[in-house]
Amino acid sequence: MKVPSSLFLKGHVVPSSVFLLKGTPNVKMNPILCFCKAIQTSSYEISNGSYHPTVQQTKEKNTMEKPSRKIESIGAFQKLPIVMPSIDILGSALRKARKVAPTKGIANIAKREKNRGAKQLDALMKEIAVPLRTYVENFPNKTYLHPYERSLIELTLGDGYYEKVLREVDGLRKRVVSVGKEHASLCAKSSSKREAEERLNEGLKKVEEIFAQERKVVDDLLDIAKTLRAMPVINLETPTLCLVGAPNVGKSSLVHVLSTGKPEVCNYPFTTRGILMGHIILNFQKFQVTDTPGLLRRHDEDRNNLEKLTLAVLSHLPTAVLYVHDLSGECGTSPSDQFSIYKELRERFTGHLWLDVVSKSDLLKTSPVVYATDEPLPSHELEKYRKSGPDGAINVSVKTQEGLNELKQRVHELLNLQMAKIEDISNNPEK
């Protein structure tokens, strides 16, 4: 950008006499240099040039450049650093520290030993502290994670445990650094070769003791990394089918039928102990499918962490819902309770595409199953649900293959609708 010619005239009258620097008597300053500095100052004000800014300008610039932290996309767990077992960190650090030689050219034996001891203690401290600092800096701040992954941390590890372990790892790092520096300084101040050797051994032993006493926190962080890295990865741009329902209604069996996922299938509640992912291949199109822990009839504050995982998926991920009902009386949750859970979720998650399935159709009887805890005089709506489930539900049986072809076709249609919905939101982000 060309500087306006008026800049050279406005406020910059250069006297012909020689300038004296303010506060420095008899020190002369060339008028040309002063004039150039004045130009640079004004140029900075116009175009943020390279001349040193004032304190106020620096503050304003820092305020303007400070970026607002954005919520990260899904996939943070796959970027976690590899955490070494604590015993390997200590063993490697000790081996490397003992190999450190004194600085070349030191003729005096005592000085050479002091130098060697200080350098070895400094090396031991750094070989332990640097990995710990790397872990603390590279494990993501939970505040900025995607809400789904934040929920996975809280519900899988326990609320506050993730932050607690990271704080303890950083605390261990600080203690190792403090002890290492202290003993390196003592070693450097030794008055003889023997004293230097003794202080070196004392320092090595002290750093090793400090780390050994608290190294469990490093192994706790290693377990956290393994747990989080094993979490299923969900692509937000790929349509996802989420199977939901009470425990033991047959969700996992349907995942077997529909996808590549291989969840455990057993006849007891809460078989699914986490979020399980698979993929559906339909007409050469690849979709995601997730099996979720079963939901019981109770208030949210009374739900266990498995149930809360299911609600986290529905709350934070753009999924289509395949809701599974079991009216055979085998799952352990009465049709009345299933109806209540179903109605609550339909009202809460109205924005989700939805498909209802009545499982175990081979076990259905002509008369509805009635539990002792059921209402003696059910409403017409509940009575109808007990007999055939919600309106439009598909009856299926994994055992007899009944309804499975229709289910696959309807699921394909549902996921295509989900794909169109994702593309619409992607093209219209304001929605």
Automatic annotation (TrEMBL):
<dbReference type="InterPro" id="IPR030389">
    <property type="entry name" value="G_FEOB_dom"/>
</dbReference>
<dbReference type="GO" id="GO:0005525">
    <property type="term" value="F:GTP binding"/>
</dbReference>
<dbReference type="Pfam" id="PF17835">
    <property type="entry name" value="NOG1_N"/>
</dbReference>
<keyword id="KW-0547">Nucleotide-binding</keyword>
<dbReference type="InterPro" id="IPR010674">
    <property type="entry name" value="NOG1_Rossman_fold_dom"/>
</dbReference>
<feature type="domain" description="Nucleolar GTP-binding protein 1 Rossman-fold">
    <location>
        <begin position="306"/>
        <end position="362"/>
    </location>
</feature>
<keyword id="KW-0342">GTP-binding</keyword>
<dbReference type="InterPro" id="IPR006073">
    <property type="entry name" value="GTP-bd"/>
</dbReference>
<dbReference type="Pfam" id="PF06858">
    <property type="entry name" value="NOG1"/>
</dbReference>
<dbReference type="InterPro" id="IPR027417">
    <property type="entry name" value="P-loop_NTPase"/>
</dbReference>
<feature type="domain" description="FeoB-type G">
    <location>
        <begin position="240"/>
        <end position="297"/>
    </location>
</feature>
<protein>
    <submittedName>
        <fullName>Nucleolar GTP-binding protein 1</fullName>
    </submittedName>
</protein>
<dbReference type="InterPro" id="IPR041623">
    <property type="entry name" value="NOG1_N"/>
</dbReference>
<feature type="domain" description="NOG1 N-terminal helical">
    <location>
        <begin position="77"/>
        <end position="234"/>
    </location>
</feature>
<dbReference type="Pfam" id="PF02421">
    <property type="entry name" value="FeoB_N"/>
</dbReference>
